[in-house]
Amino acid sequence: MRKLVISTSSFDVDNNSCLRNLVNSGMHIVGNSYKRKLTEDEIIGLLGEDTVGMIAGIEPLTERVFASAKGLRVVSRCGAGLDSVDLAAAKIRDISVFNTPEAPAQAVAELTMGLMLAALRRICQTDRLLRVNEWPRVQGQLLAAQIVGIIGLGHIGRRVARLCQAFDARVIAYDPYIDPTSHGVESVSLEKLITEANVISLHLPYGADTHHLLDAKTFARMKPGTIIINSARGGIVDETALDEALISGHLGMAALDVFEQEPYHGPLIGNDKAILTSHIGSLARESRKRMEIEAAENLLEGLINTGLIKSDVNNV
User: How far is 217 from 215, CA to CA, in rounded Å?
Assistant: First the structure.
């Protein structure tokens, strides 16, 4: 029996018609029993040599993983980013790779706005103080009064831009591949954005060229009181330098949904100026359902294209 692996920490197989039809056609589905992000060794063990297709999470799909998974032909990412996938290694081994870039975009954009507003109005700090019998009168800031700098204007970044504009904020953006003006956003250099924005929101992929894009030197060039929002990828921000910049008072607040190492146990845990969430950007019920359906459809398409199953499997 041919095996399919679903490595995401959760996935609703029972209510996914594509997957049910694949099961009915003779496929065997194996899930992630750890219910968390898998390590390289764990994903190698889960795939084995008999897996032909997988629905992937954010685990590292490296050259070593692909070399070990000798039967693998299709990888369907349940999510937008592909930075965890060695695309060159997949291509060499004729493994098709898919993702779902549009499905989680609205959910991540809305979480970004929630983090931004929480940081500006000090919502989490006020909540914590209230719970220890204080009655804080914390003065926050208006989003409408800010210059919001967006780094990366892809599916998510341009949604965040529109939402910020709806709040009457001035939005500037830097993207080396997309012209922000084509989306009604003021285009600026990265340096201008870093030095002029009051709120900086990250929406770009992680790679060697974006590793610690925001580090101690970058933070030093920002306006005093700048707020950092990261719902993209953890490695883009030097978290130790961020913690130090918050403690010093140079940065005003930070809100992060992603971290260089997850689960996160770093110094920001104890920083009252940091709002932290556990990589929940896409975890809105409606978006998650769409992601899972699209990921399964992509998997099916890939298996059909490789000739591993017949094109009429949806009629099973």
Answer: 6
